[in-house]
Design goal:
alpha/beta; Rossmann fold; 2 domains; 6-stranded parallel β-sheet; 15 helices; 41% helix
Amino acid sequence: MRKRAIVSVTNDLTTDQRVDRTCQTLVKSGYEVLLIGRLRPYSKPLAFRTYHTHRMRLLFDKGVLFYAEFNIRLFLFLLLHRCDLIVSNDTDTLPASYIAHLLRLISDSLKHFLCTLFQPGYRIQDTRSRIQRPALIHDCHEYFRGVPELVGRKWVTSSWKWIEDRIFPRLLNVIAVNRSVAGLYSTEYKINIRVIRNVPFRKSITGGKNKSDLNIRAEEKIILYQGAVNIDRGLEEAILSMKYLKTDARLIIAGTGDIFQTLQSFTMENGLSGKVRFLGQIPFQELHPLTQLADLGLSIEKDVSINYHNCLPNKFMDYIQANVPVLVSPFPEIKNVVDIYKIGEYLESHEPEKLAIQIDRILNDHEKLLIYRQNLLKAAADLCWENEEGGLLELLSEIGEYKIRF
Protein backbone atom coordinates (compact mmCIF):
# COMPACT_ATOMS: atom_id res chain seq x y z
CA MET A 1 0.00 0.00 0.00
CA ARG A 2 1.37 3.44 -0.93
CA LYS A 3 2.57 5.60 1.97
CA ARG A 4 0.34 8.55 2.85
CA ALA A 5 1.34 11.94 4.24
CA ILE A 6 -0.98 14.61 5.66
CA VAL A 7 0.47 18.12 5.67
CA SER A 8 -1.26 21.01 7.44
CA VAL A 9 -0.99 24.79 7.44
CA THR A 10 -3.42 27.50 8.61
CA ASN A 11 -3.40 29.64 5.44
CA ASP A 12 -5.59 29.13 2.36
CA LEU A 13 -2.79 27.46 0.31
CA THR A 14 -2.97 29.95 -2.57
CA THR A 15 0.39 31.66 -2.07
CA ASP A 16 2.32 29.29 0.23
CA GLN A 17 5.30 28.18 -1.85
CA ARG A 18 7.22 26.60 1.03
CA VAL A 19 4.51 24.06 1.79
CA ASP A 20 4.01 23.36 -1.92
CA ARG A 21 7.70 22.50 -2.32
CA THR A 22 7.51 20.23 0.72
CA CYS A 23 4.51 18.42 -0.75
CA GLN A 24 6.18 17.98 -4.13
CA THR A 25 9.25 16.48 -2.46
CA LEU A 26 7.03 14.11 -0.48
CA VAL A 27 5.45 12.97 -3.75
CA LYS A 28 8.92 12.43 -5.19
CA SER A 29 9.75 10.36 -2.11
CA GLY A 30 6.83 8.03 -2.80
CA TYR A 31 4.07 9.48 -0.64
CA GLU A 32 0.46 10.09 -1.53
CA VAL A 33 0.05 13.60 -0.14
CA LEU A 34 -2.93 15.50 1.24
CA LEU A 35 -2.39 19.16 2.08
CA ILE A 36 -4.88 20.71 4.53
CA GLY A 37 -5.52 24.43 4.84
CA ARG A 38 -8.56 26.66 5.21
CA LEU A 39 -11.03 28.27 2.84
CA ARG A 40 -11.54 32.00 3.35
CA PRO A 41 -14.19 34.27 1.78
CA TYR A 42 -11.69 35.74 -0.69
CA SER A 43 -9.82 32.49 -1.43
CA LYS A 44 -9.20 31.80 -5.10
CA PRO A 45 -9.60 28.38 -6.72
CA LEU A 46 -6.40 26.37 -6.54
CA ALA A 47 -4.49 25.52 -9.69
CA PHE A 48 -3.72 21.88 -10.48
CA ARG A 49 -1.17 20.27 -8.15
CA THR A 50 0.54 16.89 -8.11
CA TYR A 51 -1.04 16.10 -4.73
CA HIS A 52 -4.45 16.37 -3.08
CA THR A 53 -5.69 19.43 -1.19
CA HIS A 54 -8.45 20.00 1.34
CA ARG A 55 -9.47 23.46 2.56
CA MET A 56 -11.67 23.58 5.65
CA ARG A 57 -14.43 26.15 5.83
CA LEU A 58 -14.31 27.49 9.39
CA LEU A 59 -16.73 29.46 11.52
CA PHE A 60 -14.04 31.77 12.88
CA ASP A 61 -11.50 33.68 10.81
CA LYS A 62 -8.99 34.89 13.40
CA GLY A 63 -8.13 35.02 17.08
CA VAL A 64 -8.21 32.33 19.73
CA LEU A 65 -11.48 30.83 18.47
CA PHE A 66 -10.01 30.37 15.00
CA TYR A 67 -6.92 28.56 16.29
CA ALA A 68 -9.02 26.42 18.63
CA GLU A 69 -11.48 25.47 15.89
CA PHE A 70 -8.74 24.76 13.36
CA ASN A 71 -6.83 22.49 15.72
CA ILE A 72 -9.93 20.60 16.86
CA ARG A 73 -10.99 20.02 13.26
CA LEU A 74 -7.48 19.03 12.24
CA PHE A 75 -7.13 16.66 15.23
CA LEU A 76 -10.35 14.83 14.34
CA PHE A 77 -9.34 14.65 10.69
CA LEU A 78 -5.97 13.12 11.56
CA LEU A 79 -7.57 10.54 13.82
CA LEU A 80 -10.09 9.50 11.17
CA HIS A 81 -7.74 9.26 8.18
CA ARG A 82 -4.96 6.75 7.73
CA CYS A 83 -1.49 8.18 7.24
CA ASP A 84 2.15 7.21 7.66
CA LEU A 85 3.47 10.74 8.08
CA ILE A 86 2.14 13.97 9.57
CA VAL A 87 3.82 17.27 8.67
CA SER A 88 2.91 20.29 10.80
CA ASN A 89 3.88 23.78 9.67
CA ASP A 90 4.47 26.36 12.41
CA THR A 91 3.20 26.25 15.96
CA ASP A 92 -0.42 26.99 15.05
CA THR A 93 -0.82 23.50 13.52
CA LEU A 94 1.40 21.69 16.02
CA PRO A 95 -1.03 20.93 18.92
CA ALA A 96 -3.44 18.89 16.79
CA SER A 97 -0.65 17.22 14.83
CA TYR A 98 1.36 16.21 17.89
CA ILE A 99 -1.59 14.97 19.97
CA ALA A 100 -2.98 12.93 17.05
CA HIS A 101 0.49 11.51 16.40
CA LEU A 102 0.91 10.66 20.09
CA LEU A 103 -2.50 9.02 20.49
CA ARG A 104 -2.06 6.94 17.34
CA LEU A 105 1.31 5.72 18.56
CA ILE A 106 -0.02 4.86 22.01
CA SER A 107 -3.03 3.10 20.51
CA ASP A 108 -0.91 1.07 18.12
CA SER A 109 1.60 0.20 20.82
CA LEU A 110 -1.25 -1.06 22.98
CA LYS A 111 -2.58 -3.15 20.09
CA HIS A 112 0.86 -4.63 19.60
CA PHE A 113 1.20 -5.42 23.31
CA LEU A 114 -2.19 -7.14 23.43
CA CYS A 115 -1.39 -9.13 20.31
CA THR A 116 1.84 -10.39 21.84
CA LEU A 117 -0.14 -11.56 24.88
CA PHE A 118 -3.06 -13.24 23.17
CA GLN A 119 -1.89 -14.26 19.70
CA PRO A 120 0.77 -16.99 19.73
CA GLY A 121 3.41 -16.51 17.07
CA TYR A 122 2.47 -12.84 16.58
CA ARG A 123 5.10 -10.73 14.83
CA ILE A 124 4.89 -6.95 14.46
CA GLN A 125 5.66 -7.14 10.74
CA ASP A 126 2.49 -9.19 10.28
CA THR A 127 0.32 -6.20 11.21
CA ARG A 128 2.23 -3.22 9.83
CA SER A 129 -0.32 -2.92 7.05
CA ARG A 130 -3.13 -2.73 9.63
CA ILE A 131 -1.54 -0.66 12.39
CA GLN A 132 -1.00 3.03 11.59
CA ARG A 133 2.03 4.56 13.28
CA PRO A 134 2.57 7.98 11.70
CA ALA A 135 5.87 9.75 12.02
CA LEU A 136 5.78 13.51 12.67
CA ILE A 137 7.86 16.23 11.02
CA HIS A 138 7.53 19.79 12.28
CA ASP A 139 8.52 22.59 9.92
CA CYS A 140 9.36 26.01 11.42
CA HIS A 141 8.60 28.59 8.74
CA GLU A 142 9.44 31.32 11.26
CA TYR A 143 10.15 31.92 14.92
CA PHE A 144 6.47 31.82 15.72
CA ARG A 145 6.44 33.75 19.00
CA GLY A 146 8.44 36.51 17.37
CA VAL A 147 5.94 37.65 14.75
CA PRO A 148 5.11 41.38 14.88
CA GLU A 149 1.43 40.66 15.50
CA LEU A 150 2.38 39.22 18.93
CA VAL A 151 4.69 42.05 20.00
CA GLY A 152 3.32 43.54 23.22
CA ARG A 153 0.63 40.85 23.60
CA LYS A 154 2.09 39.10 26.60
CA TRP A 155 -0.86 36.80 27.35
CA VAL A 156 -1.08 35.51 23.78
CA THR A 157 2.69 35.09 23.51
CA SER A 158 2.86 33.24 26.83
CA SER A 159 0.06 30.92 25.67
CA TRP A 160 1.98 29.92 22.56
CA LYS A 161 5.13 29.53 24.65
CA TRP A 162 3.26 27.20 27.02
CA ILE A 163 2.32 25.04 24.03
CA GLU A 164 5.83 25.04 22.57
CA ASP A 165 7.43 24.29 25.97
CA ARG A 166 5.39 21.10 26.26
CA ILE A 167 5.82 19.82 22.73
CA PHE A 168 9.14 20.97 21.27
CA PRO A 169 11.41 19.01 23.66
CA ARG A 170 9.63 15.81 22.57
CA LEU A 171 9.94 16.36 18.83
CA LEU A 172 12.32 14.10 16.96
CA ASN A 173 12.12 15.49 13.42
CA VAL A 174 12.24 19.28 13.18
CA ILE A 175 13.28 21.40 10.21
CA ALA A 176 13.58 25.19 9.86
CA VAL A 177 13.79 27.66 7.00
CA ASN A 178 17.17 29.11 7.96
CA ARG A 179 20.03 28.88 10.46
CA SER A 180 18.80 31.77 12.58
CA VAL A 181 15.35 30.27 13.24
CA ALA A 182 16.91 26.84 13.79
CA GLY A 183 19.38 28.33 16.24
CA LEU A 184 16.69 30.06 18.29
CA TYR A 185 14.62 26.90 18.75
CA SER A 186 17.54 24.50 19.18
CA THR A 187 19.10 26.72 21.85
CA GLU A 188 15.83 27.10 23.71
CA TYR A 189 14.74 23.47 23.61
CA LYS A 190 18.05 21.60 23.24
CA ILE A 191 16.90 19.68 20.18
CA ASN A 192 18.51 19.00 16.84
CA ILE A 193 17.00 20.98 13.97
CA ARG A 194 17.86 20.55 10.32
CA VAL A 195 18.10 23.64 8.16
CA ILE A 196 16.22 23.35 4.88
CA ARG A 197 16.28 26.84 3.48
CA ASN A 198 13.30 28.68 2.10
CA VAL A 199 14.39 28.73 -1.54
CA PRO A 200 12.20 28.41 -4.67
CA PHE A 201 12.37 26.07 -7.62
CA ARG A 202 14.79 27.12 -10.35
CA LYS A 203 12.99 29.36 -12.81
CA SER A 204 13.62 30.68 -16.28
CA ILE A 205 14.01 34.41 -16.85
CA THR A 206 12.38 34.25 -20.28
CA GLY A 207 8.72 34.32 -21.16
CA GLY A 208 7.57 36.97 -18.69
CA LYS A 209 4.65 39.37 -19.01
CA ASN A 210 4.79 42.74 -20.76
CA LYS A 211 4.37 46.01 -18.90
CA SER A 212 1.43 46.73 -21.14
CA ASP A 213 -0.38 43.82 -19.45
CA LEU A 214 -0.50 46.04 -16.36
CA ASN A 215 -1.23 49.22 -18.34
CA ILE A 216 2.26 50.49 -17.58
CA ARG A 217 4.31 52.31 -20.20
CA ALA A 218 7.45 50.54 -21.45
CA GLU A 219 9.74 53.34 -20.24
CA GLU A 220 8.18 53.42 -16.77
CA LYS A 221 10.18 51.63 -14.06
CA ILE A 222 8.54 49.11 -11.75
CA ILE A 223 9.30 48.95 -8.05
CA LEU A 224 7.83 45.72 -6.70
CA TYR A 225 6.74 44.53 -3.29
CA GLN A 226 5.24 41.04 -3.24
CA GLY A 227 4.07 39.03 -0.26
CA ALA A 228 1.98 39.53 2.86
CA VAL A 229 0.58 43.03 3.27
CA ASN A 230 1.03 43.26 7.04
CA ILE A 231 2.26 45.75 9.61
CA ASP A 232 5.85 46.97 9.82
CA ARG A 233 6.85 45.85 6.34
CA GLY A 234 7.82 49.38 5.30
CA LEU A 235 4.87 49.67 2.97
CA GLU A 236 3.53 52.98 4.24
CA GLU A 237 6.96 54.53 3.76
CA ALA A 238 7.37 52.95 0.33
CA ILE A 239 4.03 54.44 -0.74
CA LEU A 240 4.89 57.90 0.59
CA SER A 241 8.32 57.77 -1.08
CA MET A 242 6.52 57.90 -4.44
CA LYS A 243 5.69 61.54 -3.65
CA TYR A 244 9.37 62.41 -3.77
CA LEU A 245 10.64 60.00 -6.41
CA LYS A 246 12.08 61.73 -9.48
CA THR A 247 12.35 58.61 -11.61
CA ASP A 248 9.37 57.76 -13.78
CA ALA A 249 8.28 54.70 -11.82
CA ARG A 250 5.29 52.83 -10.42
CA LEU A 251 5.11 50.97 -7.11
CA ILE A 252 3.37 47.60 -7.50
CA ILE A 253 2.12 45.77 -4.40
CA ALA A 254 1.27 42.13 -5.10
CA GLY A 255 -0.34 40.37 -2.17
CA THR A 256 -2.92 40.81 0.53
CA GLY A 257 -3.01 40.82 4.30
CA ASP A 258 -4.16 42.49 7.49
CA ILE A 259 -3.61 46.08 6.35
CA PHE A 260 -4.44 45.71 2.66
CA GLN A 261 -7.56 47.89 2.69
CA THR A 262 -5.95 50.37 5.08
CA LEU A 263 -3.06 50.85 2.67
CA GLN A 264 -5.42 51.34 -0.25
CA SER A 265 -7.19 54.13 1.67
CA PHE A 266 -3.82 55.56 2.74
CA THR A 267 -2.71 55.71 -0.89
CA MET A 268 -5.88 57.51 -1.98
CA GLU A 269 -5.68 59.99 0.91
CA ASN A 270 -2.17 60.94 -0.17
CA GLY A 271 -3.13 61.36 -3.82
CA LEU A 272 -0.87 58.55 -4.98
CA SER A 273 -3.34 56.25 -6.70
CA GLY A 274 -1.66 56.98 -10.03
CA LYS A 275 1.75 55.96 -8.68
CA VAL A 276 0.81 52.87 -6.65
CA ARG A 277 -0.97 49.75 -7.92
CA PHE A 278 -2.46 47.05 -5.69
CA LEU A 279 -2.80 43.67 -7.40
CA GLY A 280 -4.19 41.71 -4.46
CA GLN A 281 -3.67 38.00 -3.96
CA ILE A 282 -1.83 36.23 -6.78
CA PRO A 283 -1.36 32.43 -6.83
CA PHE A 284 2.33 31.62 -6.63
CA GLN A 285 2.13 29.74 -9.95
CA GLU A 286 1.29 33.06 -11.65
CA LEU A 287 3.70 35.29 -9.76
CA HIS A 288 7.04 34.71 -11.50
CA PRO A 289 6.10 36.26 -14.89
CA LEU A 290 4.97 39.38 -13.00
CA THR A 291 8.09 39.52 -10.83
CA GLN A 292 10.28 39.49 -13.93
CA LEU A 293 8.87 42.88 -14.95
CA ALA A 294 10.33 44.60 -11.90
CA ASP A 295 13.36 46.87 -12.00
CA LEU A 296 13.75 46.76 -8.22
CA GLY A 297 12.39 44.38 -5.59
CA LEU A 298 11.66 45.58 -2.07
CA SER A 299 12.03 43.65 1.18
CA ILE A 300 12.27 46.48 3.70
CA GLU A 301 10.71 45.10 6.89
CA LYS A 302 11.32 47.07 10.06
CA ASP A 303 13.45 45.61 12.84
CA VAL A 304 10.54 45.44 15.29
CA SER A 305 10.49 41.73 16.10
CA ILE A 306 12.84 38.79 16.43
CA ASN A 307 10.98 37.06 13.61
CA TYR A 308 11.53 39.84 11.08
CA HIS A 309 15.15 40.19 12.20
CA ASN A 310 15.81 36.53 11.42
CA CYS A 311 13.65 36.14 8.31
CA LEU A 312 14.59 34.85 4.87
CA PRO A 313 11.48 35.97 2.94
CA ASN A 314 9.91 34.15 -0.01
CA LYS A 315 9.80 37.41 -1.93
CA PHE A 316 13.54 37.98 -1.57
CA MET A 317 14.29 34.57 -3.04
CA ASP A 318 11.65 35.09 -5.75
CA TYR A 319 13.36 38.33 -6.80
CA ILE A 320 16.59 36.38 -7.20
CA GLN A 321 14.97 33.77 -9.46
CA ALA A 322 13.39 36.56 -11.53
CA ASN A 323 16.75 38.38 -11.94
CA VAL A 324 15.51 41.47 -10.08
CA PRO A 325 18.00 43.63 -8.11
CA VAL A 326 16.94 44.16 -4.50
CA LEU A 327 16.67 46.83 -1.85
CA VAL A 328 16.51 45.04 1.49
CA SER A 329 16.73 45.51 5.24
CA PRO A 330 20.18 44.40 6.45
CA PHE A 331 18.94 41.47 8.56
CA PRO A 332 21.41 38.60 9.11
CA GLU A 333 19.96 35.94 6.79
CA ILE A 334 19.24 38.39 3.96
CA LYS A 335 22.54 40.20 4.44
CA ASN A 336 24.47 36.96 4.19
CA VAL A 337 23.04 36.33 0.72
CA VAL A 338 23.52 39.91 -0.51
CA ASP A 339 27.10 40.01 0.82
CA ILE A 340 28.01 36.78 -0.97
CA TYR A 341 26.41 37.48 -4.33
CA LYS A 342 26.34 41.31 -4.53
CA ILE A 343 22.80 41.52 -5.90
CA GLY A 344 21.50 44.78 -4.47
CA GLU A 345 21.65 47.34 -1.69
CA TYR A 346 20.70 47.70 1.95
CA LEU A 347 18.03 50.10 3.09
CA GLU A 348 19.53 53.29 4.50
CA SER A 349 16.38 54.80 5.99
CA HIS A 350 12.63 54.21 6.15
CA GLU A 351 12.06 57.97 6.01
CA PRO A 352 10.09 58.46 2.75
CA GLU A 353 12.24 61.30 1.34
CA LYS A 354 15.48 59.45 2.03
CA LEU A 355 13.99 56.24 0.69
CA ALA A 356 13.05 58.03 -2.54
CA ILE A 357 16.59 59.37 -2.91
CA GLN A 358 18.04 55.88 -2.51
CA ILE A 359 15.59 54.33 -4.98
CA ASP A 360 16.34 57.11 -7.51
CA ARG A 361 20.07 56.45 -7.14
CA ILE A 362 19.67 52.70 -7.68
CA LEU A 363 17.33 52.95 -10.66
CA ASN A 364 19.56 55.45 -12.45
CA ASP A 365 22.86 53.65 -11.93
CA HIS A 366 22.59 51.49 -15.04
CA GLU A 367 26.13 50.13 -14.80
CA LYS A 368 25.59 48.85 -11.26
CA LEU A 369 22.18 47.41 -12.15
CA LEU A 370 23.82 45.43 -14.95
CA ILE A 371 26.37 44.02 -12.49
CA TYR A 372 23.59 43.10 -10.06
CA ARG A 373 21.70 41.25 -12.79
CA GLN A 374 24.80 39.33 -13.84
CA ASN A 375 25.42 38.32 -10.21
CA LEU A 376 21.77 37.32 -9.82
CA LEU A 377 22.27 34.59 -12.42
CA LYS A 378 24.83 32.90 -10.17
CA ALA A 379 22.68 33.41 -7.07
CA ALA A 380 19.63 31.91 -8.79
CA ALA A 381 21.58 28.83 -9.89
CA ASP A 382 22.80 28.22 -6.33
CA LEU A 383 19.74 29.19 -4.27
CA CYS A 384 17.09 26.88 -5.63
CA TRP A 385 14.98 24.00 -4.29
CA GLU A 386 16.68 21.52 -6.61
CA ASN A 387 19.86 22.07 -4.55
CA GLU A 388 18.08 22.21 -1.20
CA GLU A 389 15.52 19.39 -1.20
CA GLY A 390 18.20 16.74 -0.66
CA GLY A 391 18.09 17.56 3.05
CA LEU A 392 14.39 16.78 3.20
CA LEU A 393 14.74 13.61 1.13
CA GLU A 394 17.49 12.47 3.50
CA LEU A 395 15.29 13.12 6.53
CA LEU A 396 12.41 11.18 4.97
CA SER A 397 14.68 8.21 4.42
CA GLU A 398 15.91 8.31 8.02
CA ILE A 399 12.60 8.76 9.84
CA GLY A 400 12.02 6.07 12.44
CA GLU A 401 8.29 5.34 12.29
CA TYR A 402 8.26 3.68 15.70
CA LYS A 403 10.20 6.26 17.73
CA ILE A 404 8.58 8.44 20.37
CA ARG A 405 9.55 10.43 23.41
CA PHE A 406 7.19 10.39 26.39
